[in-house]
Design a protein that fits this description.
15 strands
């Protein structure tokens, strides 16, 4: 459920009064970008980083940013003020706007459509976190600009549905024999005490939580390698995680019906996943819940 007040094209108004043209290019072509910003105790999580990623996505689809960085900051904070949830997620979307016709070419003289709303931030419960979740693998058949956070998510939707169809929480994507990311998350492996992460490229979304995990690993002295990860390394992993703004750090205990890990620890969240989750919570308590926007 989302908050009753939303933002549309410069105005905060009741959701029931928010109207968008059916000729909007976001509706016709998925011609637009979006961001999801987590909020803890009414403090936005790494707002500047999210807004920089929004700018990169807009640049990638050649859509001028309708607002300055400071204007976005002010509007996001005002949206938080309208939310009835202390912990929330702010969804913002920018499309190329509504033309008077359907034409693939960019329209001229058309204002972009800006939409934003707040919903509750729901993170995995204790039982899910301590047991871990299941995942499946699938061929990454998406386009070649996965680093852009665009509205064209049908491929991700279908890939994520494969996980749902198998009673799993996520689909881990493999392109040309290498792990890229999850359908709606980033992926980390642990092998022999080393944290492994696929490198940022045009084939994966540069996750803000991904960055935090690597920062926390460096801060706490965890050996880390950012490198290409072969799909063949997945069955040999000691631990496997998914990370995102809403999942935070969540261990994958079963992959393609087989337990992750070895020996007595197989099929259970590993010790480094538990430590990373605790470090992440401490980071939230020390930074995000103290009124500072880090």
């Amino acid at each position: 459920m989302i908050a009753d007040i939303v933002f549309l094209n410069g105005q905060f108004l009741p959701l029931a009064d928010a109207k968008i043209s059916p000729l909007d290019r976001g509706f016709l072509f998925a011609d637009g970008v979006y961001e999801v910003i987590p909020v803890y105790s009414r403090q936005p999580f790494r707002l500047d980083e999210h807004l920089r990623r929004l700018q990169a996505s807009l640049d990638g689809i050649r859509l001028p940013n309708p607002y300055s960085h400071a204007q976005w900051q002010a509007r996001v904070r005002e949206m938080i003020g309208h939310a009835p949830f202390a912990d929330a997620q702010i969804y913002l979307q920018v499309t190329r706007g509504a033309d008077s016709k359907r034409d693939h070419a960019f329209p001229t003289g058309v204002a972009p459509t800006v939409f934003m709303f707040a919903g509750p931030l729901v993170t995995p419960g204790e039982s899910v976190r301590t047991l871990g979740v299941s995942a499946v693998t699938a061929v990454d058949n998406r386009w070649l600009r996965c680093d852009l956070k665009t509205l064209a998510l049908l491929a991700n939707v279908l890939l994520r549905q494969q996980a749902v169809d198998h009673g799993c929480a996520e689909t881990i994507l493999v392109r040309d024999g290498f792990v890229t990311e999850g359908a709606a998350s980033n992926v980390f492996l642990v092998k022999n005490g080393v944290l492994l992460a696929p490198p940022k490229s045009h084939l994966m979304l540069p996750g803000v939580t991904y960055d935090v995990v690597l920062e926390l690993a460096a801060r706490h002295g965890v050996p880390t390698e950012v490198r290409d990860i072969l799909a063949d390394e997945l069955p040999e992993a000691d631990e496997l995680w998914m990370t995102s703004s809403t999942k935070e750090v969540l261990a994958i205990a079963t992959l393609d019906g087989r337990p992750v890990g070895h020996g007595a620890a197989a099929g259970k969240p590993g010790p480094l996943a538990e430590r990373m989750w605790q470090w992440y919570q401490q980071f939230k308590n020390d930074v995000m819940r103290t009124g500072r926007d880090d």
